[in-house]
Amino acid sequence: MSRRKNMSNEAENTAHATGKDLGAxxxxxxxxxxxxxxxxxxxxxxxxxxxxxxxMNVHDSDRMRRMIRDAGYAEVTRYEDADLVxxxxxxxxxxxxxxxxxxxxxxxxxxxxxxxxxxxxxxxIGAGQEARDxxxxxxxxxxxxxxxxxELAQFVGLPGMxxxxxxxxxxxxxxHTAFVTIMTGCNYQxxxxxxxxxxxxxVCRPMENVLLEVRRLVESGTRYVTLLGQTVDAWREDGRRFxxxxxxxxxxxxxxxxxxxxxxxxxxxxxxxxxxxxTLVKRLHLPVQSGSDRMLKIMHRGYKSERYRRKIEVFRDAxxxxxxxxxxxxxxxxxxxxxxxxTLKLVEDCxxxxxYVFKFSPRRGTEAAExxxxxxxxxxxxxxxxxxxxxxxxxxxxxxRKIGSVEEIYIRHGRTGEDGKAAVGETWSxxxxxxxTDAEPGRYVTAKIETAGPHVLYAGVPFGPPR
Length: 467
Ligand code: SAM
Ligand code: SF4
Hints:
The chain is of the alpha/beta class. It has helices at residues 55-70, 94-112, 124-127, 131-138, 151-155, 195-199, 207-219, 242-252, 268-276, 293-298, 305-318, 337-350, 367-370, 377-400, and strands at 16-17, 46-51, 74-75, 84-89, 118-123, 142-143, 177-181, 183-184, 203-204, 224-228, 236-237, 240-241, 256-259, 283-285, 323-330, 354-359, 406-413, 423-427, 432-435, 444-452, 457-459. The structure holds S-adenosylmethionine and iron/sulfur cluster (SF4).
């Protein structure tokens, strides 16, 4: 089934991903049959969900998609075909609001022409300060933050959904890959970040509840589980830590990954577990943000670069074939040329396989937005390109080392058919691979890596049929 073709989600990334497909597994539709909701004119009602932002948003959209489908809406991809449009938004970068404004303007016009009936704004922007202004300016029918997305259920005509659509209930079931949220919110206060104010403080989901969901997913056919949280490795419950939960999940699910981790929470035993446990994808995403201790302090990251480097040493030692990616912000207020040099040095020393590099963008309500020492745009742009180039060089160098190896490849996105495009897969080391196979998503093929670029590996014809 070609699910991606049917989807309206763009999952627009807020980051400049220089690396491989850093993990936007396909957004999945439930297989559950639904009752068709019929409009006054006798036709099935339609809805379009568009997602901007990170995997948390993708996951929230997935939950909202289940609501609209359970309410009997058919999903469409174009605004003009939709009775209801849901914009699930991201707030991490300033221009995110401008981008969403563009979409709202278009929707407002379609509403006036009678082609779109209702518009809902959800996600981080829905929870932010601009939401009320946007609501007034564009005649939005429903505004929801990140904590009350369950209210969409009532809006689309499902009764008493507050309990039904909490994160405690199963995510997408019966599909080959699924996200499982294990914690929400964040207890850090990074200078530049809006997440704590829009997502609130950390709330961890009970272990038994997570395991129950993972078991159900696996029983219904899920082959790849990604544990999600803004600081996923900060998860804890009654003396149990993230590593304990990860181990239990990896005992149940056949393939497991997690994101996003915070260096201060990352335990050495988790890094060792990644190397030891067969079912864990050997890929670590550990955002560093800067290589300069002065900047890390200004950003309130809570660690020094030396501590980060030590974590990486443990990871490389425990998982020699693993992949490592990070997030870096350039041009944060007060960043000097010396700080930038230290970031470049850290990039060189850590030999990242990929990174999301961000130019600092002031977010209203954050400390950094008020700080003096703004870095001029042309300086930030140069630093951005320098970091990007350094990452690409190291990624290319590391990817080339894989040429000639024979890899078991998990198919994430199937081949797109007529145009003959390769399927996109992932090795156990976490490398993205293009491979020419008709294998369905969720199956494995084995193939030899023939060539490599800075972002992706290219495999030859697989040996034997898919598994
Ligand atoms: N919780 C994760 C962590 O602490 O590493 C990151 C979550 S944040 C949603 C994703 C990334 O966006 C951050 O790692 C950071 O690099 C980037 N980011 C967040 N706020 C930003 C801002 N105001 N300007 C530029 N980049 C930003
Ligand atoms: Fe934002 Fe920092 Fe929390 Fe990550 S750890 S979500 S960057 S405040």
